[in-house]
Design goal:
The structure holds 2 protein chains of 2 kinds. Chain A is an all-alpha fold. In chain A, 68% of the residues lie in helices and 0% in strands. The N and C termini of chain A lie far apart (54 Å). Chain B is mostly helical. Chain B folds into 2 domains: 73 residues; 248 residues, no CATH class. The longest helix of chain B is centred in the N-terminal third of the chain and has 36 residues. Chain B is globular. The chains are: A mainly alpha, B mainly alpha. Chains A and B meet through helix 1, helix 2 and helix 4 of A and helix 1, helix 3, helix 4, helix 6 and helix 7 of B.
Chain lengths: 122, 329
């Protein structure tokens, strides 16, 4: 069992170093090396050289919402299939039939979304 | 098989070895990224009948290092209208998972420097999805219209291609009966490389991973000619460098994952394991640069429907095919 936790300790080390690198580069070494002279026009928002019109914090296209919903459905499906794939050999033929039914149900969902024109990007 | 992380008890020596291993992987990732960018510029140059970078150092080898140093001494501009805290958080949120996924890749036979955890594959897929948050937050926090569109496109594209990517590797998990990347390599070491029995899965993986990496022909989120740079347009200096670093670390990580899952990882005749691994990783990276130079950018509506209408049914078919095949054989 200790070796099991050692693997995850390694992952924790990776998180720590992954955070340390940008923090060291952006907040410790960076301020020493880079100039700091913010002016009004420098800090303006870029919009092809013109004065920016309006704000970009707006409500965005609802089409993205439908794709996000589709993503949740199919990603959770994938998540269910992972443990099934790993223990497929032990489970035998019955698991194959079960999985076929499960996938078939989701294919019906996909066909429904297809017919409803959710998959069109217009 | 002996390895750093698999030793039985956590001792000081063991812990120190893990620490050194992490530092080595960090330096490896940074070095590979530096010379991937150099290789990209050289290869693209040759393919277009140019020479590529050739001024700094022999054959221009110091070019990328000079670029990185230049970025480090550039002023860090935070736009007035930006959401300051999210703007600062986004590059880190994007970068950390890109480095963390390297922790499960088996680089060589003895599995040095990386964690030998039993859910390696799932860990990779789950973590790589976190980067979407960094990209989307960066785009939104910039308060710039180009950045917003780029970030949103990125999110939609990565969500759509995450599904076929996750499903295409299921076939490999079925073949090996495990999610541990080292076990997957071992199963290929004794039999066929997965590219042969899982050819359909490999093709889906190749297309989906290109889209996940936001590379041409799926580079809509950062299309230079219409969105200027997409989500990182307001970022300057080293903050921008971290977004670029994320992108190239992912290119390396995805190449490593592809080599591990489909091309047999470190296994191969004659040459040492790490060299085989490096050759396979470079082959994947070269392929990415090759199609970058060959293919025009795909249209946004084609992009989304291709994922849902072609890749998703194909990957479902691949799973069923593999399962039936495994039952019969």
């Amino acid at each position: 069992m200790p070796s099991y936790w050692n693997g995850y300790l390694f992952v924790v080390l990776f998180i720590i170093f992954g955070i340390l690198l940008p923090v060291a580069a952006l907040w410790v070494i960076g301020p020493i090396l880079r100039p700091n002279n913010p002016t009004k026009s420098k800090r303006g928002t870029y919009e092809s050289g013109l004065e920016p019109i309006g704000d970009a914090h707006v409500r965005y296209n609802a089409r993205y919402y439908l794709f996000a919903l589709m993503f949740v459905v199919f990603d959770v499906e994938t998540l269910f299939l992972y443990p099934w794939a790993v223990s497929f050999k032990q489970l035998g033929h019955f698991a194959l039939v079960e999985m076929l039914i499960f996938v078939a149900l989701l294919v019906v969902g996909l066909i429904y979304a297809w017919r409803k024109k959710v998959l069109e990007w217009t | 098989m002996w390895n750093w992380s698999g030793a039985s008890h956590l001792t000081w020596l063991n812990g120190l070895a893990m620490l050194i291993g992490t530092v080595i992987v960090l330096l490896l990732a940074l070095g590979v990224v530096t010379y991937t960018i150099y290789a990209q510029r050289k290869i693209l140059g040759w393919m277009q009948g140019r020479i590529g970078p050739n001024r700094l150092g022999p054959f221009g080898l110091m070019q990328t290092i000079a670029d990185i140093l230049k970025l480090l001494i550039k002023e860090d501009i935070i736009p007035e209208k930006a959401d300051r805290s999210l703007f600062l958080l986004a590059p880190i949120l994007a970068f950390v998972p890109s480095f963390m996924v390297l922790s499960v890749i088996p680089f060589s036979r003895t599995h040095v420097f990386t964690a030998n955890i039993s859910i390696g594959l799932l860990f990779y897929i789950a973590l790589s999805a976190i980067t979407i948050h960094g990209v989307m937050l960066g785009g939104w926090a910039s308060n710039n219209k180009y950045a917003l569109i780029g970030g949103m496109r990125s999110a939609a594209q990565m969500l759509s291609y995450e599904v076929p990517l996750g499903m295409s590797v299921l076939g490999v998990a079925l073949m090996a009966g495990s999610l541990n990347l080292n076990t997957i390599v071992m199963s290929q070491h004794t039999g066929w490389w997965n590219i042969v029995p899982q050819f359909l899965g490999f093709c889906i993986f190749l297309v989906a991973s290109t889209a996940e990496l936001n590379r041409t022909p799926f580079d809509l989120p950062e299309a230079e000619s219409e969105l200027i740079a997409g989500y990182h347009i307001e970022y300057s200096g080293f903050r921008m460098a971290f977004f670029m670093l994320t992108e190239y670390v992912y290119l390396f990580a995805m190449a490593a994952l592809c080599a591990t899952l489909f091309l047999g990882g470190w296994s191969g005749p004659f040459l040492p394991g790490w060299l085989w691994f490096a050759i396979k990783v470079f082959a994947f990276i070269f392929f990415q640069f090759w199609i970058q130079n060959t293919m025009p950018r795909i249209r946004a509506d084609h992009l989304m429907s291709f994922s849902w209408k072609v890749l998703l049914p194909l990957s479902l078919f691949n799973i069923v095919l593999t399962a039936v095949f495994k039952t019969i054989v």
